[in-house]
Design goal:
- With 337 residues, this protein is mainly α.
- Helices cover 72% and strands 2% of the residues.
- Strands 1-2 form a two-stranded antiparallel sheet.
- Helix 3 runs antiparallel to helix 13, helix 10 crosses helix 12 and helix 12 runs parallel beside helix 15.
- The radius of gyration is 21 Å and the shape is globular.
- It starts with a helix and ends with a helix.
Length: 337
């Protein structure tokens, strides 16, 4: 059963590429598709945060956190993805494409995209995922970098005014609903605990140590498809999930499949960053810089269809896609037909 799931999810990578060959503007369609994901899910996320009502698919239990001696409920948003970490991952997957769309957007369209980005940032801060926050900052830094080098001058005054306006509006909204402290309770809890709460994660280190022993004991050949939970349970890991995309792949599938996966990533990022147009470089480089922090946000990455759609989307944006299109003898659709 596990093998079937892995094959079905991995097939998403090739299916999206095959469908893209039929599209008139595949790159723009990919970007709009990820923006549509945000448009459809962020209203549900904001509803969850404000009302503390969650869908039946939510697997998290309600939690109380103590801030300054006061017990506050931990507000969160997971939408239809089961837990908040899975939804944080969806937000991080979507962010490079959103900022790519913002890169050349004008006036009304830019304003609309900024509203979506503001809601995305708000939800990320509420869920308080360290990997998610680091990822989004790196993606945003990529956007600012390309904006800077593609323009002879950027009005610092406009940036300050717009940033101040958004900050004031966000503060007023929070004060009106009187939920400021409760909304950011997880973030406040971590800040109250000091910097160590953001950088230390003993349970995950223990899991990775157990995973490393599995890799050594299987002689780098992998423990087998779908073995993650039973093998980590056998090795007394604190949680039977690696919580790391690369360790999850290496531990189960071994060094040869791992090298192949790294090669695919190399092709996507190298061609996209070196040869792609600037607006697509925003998405490709932003994705590359956020790759490590996003790889430790959630667990069971390889069984997430969204991961393979994300990688396929990046492939289509990269220059590898242009080469693929020009050499139709390699075309997936042609071969399928």
């Amino acid at each position: 059963k596990e093998l079937f799931y892995y094959l079905a999810h991995f097939t998403n990578f090739f299916m999206l590429i095959a469908w893209a060959e039929k599209a008139n503007k595949p790159k723009q369609s990919i970007i709009m598709g990820w923006i549509l994901v945000l448009v459809l899910t962020l209203p549900i996320a904001l509803y969850e945060i404000i009302t503390q009502n969650h869908l039946y698919t939510d697997t998290f239990t309600d939690e109380l956190l103590y801030i300054g001696g006061e017990a506050l409920a931990y507000r969160r948003a997971s939408v239809t993805f089961g837990n908040l970490n899975a939804y944080v991952l969806i937000l991080v997957f979507s962010a490079p494409f959103l900022l790519s769309a913002m890169f050349k957007a004008k006036r009304k369209r830019l304003l609309g995209l900024l509203v979506i980005f503001g809601a995305l940032m708000y939800t990320l801060l509420v869920n308080a995922s360290r990997g998610g926050i680091i990822s989004i900052l790196l993606i945003l830094a990529t956007y600012v970098f390309y904006k800077k080098i593609s323009s002879t001058s950027i009005s610092i005054k406009k940036i300050i005014i717009r940033t101040s306006a958004f900050t004031i509006i966000a503060y007023v909204i929070n004060r009106v609903f009187s939920v400021s402290d409760e909304i950011f309770v997880k973030l406040l809890s971590r800040s109250e605990s000091g910097a160590s709460s953001f950088t230390s994660d003993s349970p995950r280190f223990q899991i990775w140590e157990a995973s490393y022993r599995v890799i050594l004991d299987t002689y780098f050949l992998g423990s087998g498809v779908g073995s993650e939970v039973p093998i980590l349970t056998k090795y007394n890991a604190s949680v039977p999930n690696t919580h790391n995309l690369f360790i999850e792949l290496f531990m189960q599938f071994g060094v040869f499949i791992f090298i192949g996966f790294i090669y695919i990533l190399f092709r996507i990022y190298y061609s996209g960053i070196k040869f792609g147009s600037t607006e697509y470089k925003v998405a490709i480089l932003g994705s590359f810089l956020s790759l490590l922090p996003l790889s430790i946000i959630n667990s069971s990455y390889l069984l997430m269809p969204a991961l393979w759609v994300y990688l396929s989307s990046l492939y289509i944006l990269s220059d590898s896609w242009d080469f693929f299109q020009k050499n139709q003898k390699y075309s997936l659709v042609k071969n399928i037909d």
